[in-house]
From TrEMBL:
GO cellular component labels: mitochondrial inner membrane
Keywords: ATP synthesis, Membrane, Mitochondrion, Mitochondrion inner membrane, Transmembrane, Transmembrane helix
Organism: Equus asinus asinus
Main location class: mitochondrion
One Pfam family hit: UQCC3
Official protein name in the record: Ubiquinol-cytochrome-c reductase complex assembly factor 3
Length: 89
């Protein structure tokens, strides 16, 4: 009888803990309107930031293409916009 009682107490404690955790999760989770507001404030939503990221990707891609076609170590360049001018490998 003691084992059954102990199992029931353990089950009740675990259930209560899960209930408290679920309740806290519901309280902390933002609503749909708050989610939309947070998404609008993200830096990726700013057109200038998106343009800057696209330009950076273009520069990296161009550098990778050039690195694939030349023997120069383009990683040593101080200014990747230049066609050369760094230490060569």
């Amino acid at each position: 009888m003691g084992t059954v009682r102990k199992a029931l107490i353990v089950g009740a404690v675990l259930g209560a803990g899960a209930g408290v955790g679920s309740a806290l999760f519901v309280l902390v989770t933002p609503g749909e309107q708050q989610k939309q507001a947070m998404l609008k404030e993200m830096p990726e939503q700013d057109p200038r930031r998106r343009d800057e990221a696209a330009r950076t990707k273009q520069l990296v891609f161009a550098t990778l293409q050039e690195a694939a076609t030349t023997q120069e170590n383009v990683a040593w360049r101080k200014n990747w916009n230049d066609g050369g001018g760094g230490r060569s490998g």
